[in-house]
Each structure stands twice: as structure tokens, then as C-alpha cells.
Amino acid sequence: MSASVSPLAPTDVPDMPAIAGVKLATAAAGIRYKGRTDVLLAVMDKGTAVAGVFTKSKCPSAPVEWCRAKLGRGARALVVNSGNANAFTGKTGRQATALTASIAAKAVGCSANEVFLASTGVIGEPLDATKFDGVLATLAETAAPDEWMAAATAIMTTDTFPKVATATVKLGKTKVTINGMAKGAGMIAPDMATMLSFVFTDAPLSSAVLQSLLKSGVEDTFNAITIDSDTSTSDTLLAFATGAAADDGAPKISRASDPRLKAFAKAFQDVLANLAEQVARDGEGARKLVEVIVEGATTKNSARKIAMSIANSPLVKTAIAGEDANWGRVVMAVGKAGEPANRDKLSISFNGIRVAKSGARDPSYNEAEVSEVMKNPKIQIKVALGLGKGRDRVLTCDLTKEYVAINGDYRS
Amino acid sequence: MSASVSPLAPTDVPDMPAIAGVKLATAAAGIRYKGRTDVLLAVMDKGTAVAGVFTKSKCPSAPVEWCRAKLGRGARALVVNSGNANAFTGKTGRQATALTASIAAKAVGCSANEVFLASTGVIGEPLDATKFDGVLATLAETAAPDEWMAAATAIMTTDTFPKVATATVKLGKTKVTINGMAKGAGMIAPDMATMLSFVFTDAPLSSAVLQSLLKSGVEDTFNAITIDSDTSTSDTLLAFATGAAADDGAPKISRASDPRLKAFAKAFQDVLANLAEQVARDGEGARKLVEVIVEGATTKNSARKIAMSIANSPLVKTAIAGEDANWGRVVMAVGKAGEPANRDKLSISFNGIRVAKSGARDPSYNEAEVSEVMKNPKIQIKVALGLGKGRDRVLTCDLTKEYVAINGDYRS
């Protein structure tokens, strides 16, 4: 695992406020790692609504299957462990989720059906859930409202920094809070961008409203990032709404079309976008944050496919790592996407400097000027197709030797 | 560019026989490289049939467009240059192909429509075709039947060894010969597996027969390899049949269904398979040749998609580089392929040792034993899905720090 923090880590980490109705605690259960926390328990008040979106892998992890089956009811607890993904663990995996939920339910004083689970780490190794015995009971007793950074740290695997985001917004006339956390940092590709993320709010939203917010919110955030084109078996984004702000007068929202939801929906999406960008900023071995913008495509969907083709191209990503504005490789990635594109209408720019237009090198293109901007830690690749009004944006990072080092020496 | 030869290079390089009706010559035209040959001229006798398959990129190179337009007639000359792909070069690119063909036609004494072109190297830089002036005339004069290794060397870019293959087979009662060459070594993914390859035979085949042999021949050879999932703008596979063996009594074949073609078709496919494997063996930075076999899929096409998902996964490829039998990542890649798969029926083996069965770790799996076989330079990953009879096989290589080094410092 990489010891040094990504140079792309945000410099302004927010103070995370409490969310009424949510308490957190972390511990070192010894799942896999030594000398660090690896289990998070979040305890929610009665009446907490829950929603979730998950990996589209055909081989999902046991916790993903567990959560899918439990959606639609309320949530009282969330247990997250790092170090072991409890994926491809067969019957043992299902037993481990049931046992974990049972231990958590007893510790919190709720039904196992109100316990949500997420696991991240190595695939294919049995998860010894008996390690949670005792640990979760202690965590339930010590859980506190202000443990957000500790929580975000406990769920890390190869992440080099904890990822949190917060927003406050008015719902009706009442101030409500949204807190989120996420972990990356490899095996990141839609859909659903692979990682774990948990968002909490005190807003009184129904599960259906929360699910609707999640579904529309991920489209241009977590589903618009990719690290390495690999889709995890464990991708999980859960949102919890305790409804505690109703005590302060916040209106209960039970329809996604409720106009009072508008500002909240925007703030919610901003939190998702913030976390998703942090995941891209902490891609394994990342030294550059890469924003790919495709415009002039026939449709937004077509623009997304082309942007993803560029963002997933090893040759584009290694060129960025080498600070080389190799727009020829961008052309290659446009060409292989299989979407409508006319070579002779294509324009490409790096960080605002156009290097190619009308299917050939831009005559005014100055290599030295471009070389200079390629040193920036953030690189924007903009491709104008000149065909229509379809536009999209995805985030990724460069592909460095460190990525190979991290992933060639992860399990052993 | 990597200086040392891939450890996966074949140890037994064949002596390449002459092909009646084909002469070759190479030169250093100074396209881009210093101190090495970078242009190949092949001169074919009158009456030579030609067939070709090309990249499916929506942004193909100028030579690809040239060749596509010239198919269906005969061929008298092939000009290949390395160092510059003449791709995304706009009108200048089209002018460069026309000029090159015109210079070659004059040198050889044929029509420009009988000249085939291929370029490989950097994308987006104008190709100065005037550099061929004089050079091609000299090459046409000095062309000789035995320059196969020199030819295969002149077309290399980041390849670490020249790739040739040969076969002799009876057509009717006459011995005919098939010679092929190819270059890789990055931006290799179907369809059409990205590279340049040229195959020559003295068999008297019509263009239609040759095209049919190519089309069916590439499916499980060049279209079944991937280095990095990136599809070149320049992929070109051309086949030439001089027909000279007709003088020795070989029958003229004008229908692909002709039963006399059977042994030839097999030998032809073997040459393609041999060259394709050499391309995988010389993938940029490759230290392991990886054979992915998927069986028990619902269809062959489904097996191909799953095999490609595994072969293109950076996490699987880095694990192989790290000599880690990380079957969890293989599960991930199966899951992300989007094809029918039942986690609980999946079995996975590395070099014959089964590590997972029925959706979980194989109880008899011995880590030390598997670690030992992972040191082999050739790794076979076999996935049994247990659903149907669909089977497929693809070749790839591992993903190493050297790949990143080669591609992070290619253009500059």
C-alpha cells in the first residue's frame, strides 16, 4: 500500500458537523490490517429512511446482495469493514453477512433487517465475522456524533486520504445538513462507480425520495468517474435520512417532485460530486486529475461513451503521466469508441490550448506552451466533435508506474 | 523505446524461404528514427491478388483509407514506413499517400492504384512523403527475394523483435509457400487487432478467395489478442497472392468453397496465429504471455466478451505481473463483462491448478503450489462458467511498469 498522500488530495478539509440522529464509532477488529481501524459502525435513530445504488457486476459481493434485499424498510445501523470485501465467498459469505447483521442488531437493539453492510478489500477470502463479536457492542456504546473523520479513515483500503464532504441547505425554513464519506481507489469504473460511499442527512425524506435523489445524483458524479475501467463487485452508495430536522420544523418530503426539495437536491448532488472528485483525486498512483469534456456529440450518451473511451485509454493516461499532450492518442480513443465521429471536424485542446482542429494539427499550436500547461496537476482534455449538441464530462487520473506497483503487490 | 528484447521472444526463428513473384528491399529514409531502416518496399509480379482487413476505428489513418479504396484490383507494390502513422493528418495526409503511391508506381513501373500503403508510428504529425523520392527507385532496383528478416525489422516501432512466420503446404499436388510478418506492440486491441501484418503466398488465389481466407482467419488470431484495449487508427493486415505456383502446376482457386483449399486455409490460419501470438509476446513491457480461456459460456461470442474483459483488466494484468494468482480480480472481470454468469457456478484455474470452484475458494487450493506456477513466463487463466458450451481463447500479456515507462515517454 502506498504510504504517501496523493498530491491531488484536497487542501481544505471541511469540519464535519454532527447530523442529528447519527452516531459513529470505529475500531480495529483485525480483519486484515494491523495497527489501524478497519470497522465502522453508524447507529441511526428510529425512523431513518434508507436508499442505495450498487455495482452492476454480475458477480456482486455478499454485502451488496444483503443490502439490495433490505432496501425499502428503515435503517438503524450500518457496518462497514475494510480489508476483506466478502466477495466470491459463496455460502460462507452469505453466512458472514447474516452473522454480522445479527451481532450488530443485538448491539444496537434493532432487527437484523435494519442493518446495512458494506465490505471492501481483498476478494475471495472468507470474512471471519466472529471478529465483530464484542467489537460492535462496544462501538454501539461509544458511538458519538462527531467521529466523521475517524469513520472515513476506517473504511480506507489503498486510499491515501479520507474523503468527506458536507453541505447545509434550507429545507422549507429549516437548516438541514448533508454529510458524506467515500473510499476509492482502484477498481473504479461505472456503473456504479466502484467504491463505498455513505451519505447521511437529518432531512425528513421518505426512502422513495432518497432513492430518487440517489439515482439522479449518481449519473454525473459517481457514474462519471473512472480510474482503471475495472468494476468492483462491491460498489455501494447508501444514503440515510434520519428525519431529525422535522423536530426543528423541516417539512416531511414524500414526493420527489416536491418543489421544496429543489435546493436540497442541488446540495445533495454537490456532496456526491465532491466525493466523486475526491475518489478520482485518489486513484491508485495518481499524480494528475484529468477532466475529459466531450462536446458537439450527437447525444449526451454518445458524448459519455467517447469521454469514457478517452478516460479509460491506457495510452492517453500514460501520456498524461508523461506530461505529453499526445492528442494523437485522444484521436485514437475517439475512434475506438464506436460512436459517430468525423475525423475532419474534430478539435482537441489541453487546458484551454487547442492543439488540433478540423482533423489535423492546429497551425497555431505551440509545443512549448502546451508542454508548460501539461505540468499542471489538473489536466482538462476537451474534444469538440462538431456534430451536434451532446455534451458530457468525466473525471479520471493518469496511469503511473505507481499504479502498477500498488496492484502488482496488493494481495501478497 | 525499450532496448532489450522481450523475454517472451520466440527462440526458434524460422529461415524464411523466397516466395516466387515477391521481392523486398528496405532503407533508412529518415522518417523519424536515426540509424535504422524505416521503409520497406515489396514488389510483386503482375497478376498478384490482394485482400485486406483494417481497423474499425472511426478515425482511420490516411493509408487505411487509401488501401480500402484500392482493394478489388491487383497489387504490384507495398510501401510500409515506420516512425509516422500518417493518421489524423487531414488533407496533408491524403496528399502524402497519393505522393507516396505515385513515387512507388514510377519506381516499380505500375499504376498508383496497384500500390498499397501502410504507416505506423506517431499519430498527428504530417508525413513528409518527399523523403521517399529517390529512395523507392533505388529499392525497386535492389529488391531481392530473401530480405524477409530485414523487411520485418524495418516496420518495427516499439517492437523488441521482428516477427515472421512461414508455412509450406500442398495446393493440388504443388507445394506452395506462405510467408508473413507483423509488427505490434502497443495500441493493440481488436477489432481488427491493431498492428501491421503482411502475408504473401505464391498460391494462385483470386482476390475474393484471399479476402475470404483473411476474414475467417483473423477471427481467432489477430482479433483474439489484446495488449492494452486501445485500438489503433492504422491496423492493417494485407495478403498478397502472386499466383507464381501456377507455373509449377498449382490449380487456380477462385471459389472459397473449393475443397482443394482446405489444407492451404489451415496453413494460412496457422501463419496468422503464429504472428498474432508473437505480437502478444512483444506487448509493450510484457514479461508474461497470458492465455485466457473461457468455457461453459452460453455462446462463443459471450465467451469472447468475458475473455476480453479479463484480458483487458488492468487489475488482472498487474496481478500477473506481480506473479499473484489473484482470482478475485478474475471474478471481478467476469462480473463486469455484462454477459451471463452465475457466481456460484464459476471455477477458475491458473496453469492447470484450480483455485476456485462453485463460487468460492477451492478447498484443496494450495497457495505455495500456485505461487510456484505463477513464476512461469506463460500463464493460462481458465474460467469455467458452467452455463453452456460456448468457448473462446484470447491472448494478452501482463501490465508492467515498463509499459507505463514506454508510453509515458514515447513521443517526446
TrEMBL record, chains A, B:
Cellular compartment(s): Cytoplasm
Active site: 194
Annotated positions for site Cleavage: 193-194
Catalytic activity: N(2)-acetyl-L-ornithine + L-glutamate = N-acetyl-L-glutamate + L-ornithine; L-glutamate + acetyl-CoA = N-acetyl-L-glutamate + CoA + H(+)
This protein's pathway: Amino-acid biosynthesis; L-arginine biosynthesis; L-ornithine and N-acetyl-L-glutamate from L-glutamate and N(2)-acetyl-L-ornithine (cyclic): step 1/1; Amino-acid biosynthesis; L-arginine biosynthesis; N(2)-acetyl-L-ornithine from L-glutamate: step 1/4
GO molecular function, one term: L-glutamate N-acetyltransferase activity, acting on acetyl-L-ornithine as donor
InterPro entries: Arg_biosynth_ArgJ, ArgJ-like_dom_sf, ArgJ_beta_C
GO BP terms, alphabetized: L-arginine biosynthetic process; ornithine biosynthetic process
Swiss-Prot/TrEMBL site (Involved in the stabilization of negative charge on the oxyanion by the formation of the oxyanion hole) positions: 120-121
One cellular-component annotation, GO: cytoplasm
A Pfam family: ArgJ
Catalytic activity, EC: 2.3.1.35, 2.3.1.1
Keywords from the UniProt entry: Acyltransferase, Amino-acid biosynthesis, Arginine biosynthesis, Autocatalytic cleavage, Cytoplasm, Multifunctional enzyme, Transferase
Residues at which substrate binds: 157, 183, 194, 284, 407, 412
PANTHER family xrefs: ARGININE BIOSYNTHESIS BIFUNCTIONAL PROTEIN ARGJ (PTHR23100), ARGININE BIOSYNTHESIS BIFUNCTIONAL PROTEIN ARGJ, MITOCHONDRIAL (PTHR23100:SF0)
Chain's role: Catalyzes two activities which are involved in the cyclic version of arginine biosynthesis: the synthesis of N-acetylglutamate from glutamate and acetyl-CoA as the acetyl donor, and of ornithine by transacetylation between N(2)-acetylornithine and glutamate.
HAMAP family: ArgJ
Protein family (similarity comment): Belongs to the ArgJ family.
Subunit note: Heterotetramer of two alpha and two beta chains.
Stated name of the protein: Arginine biosynthesis bifunctional protein ArgJ
Top-level taxonomy: Bacteria, Pseudomonadati, Pseudomonadota, Alphaproteobacteria, Hyphomicrobiales
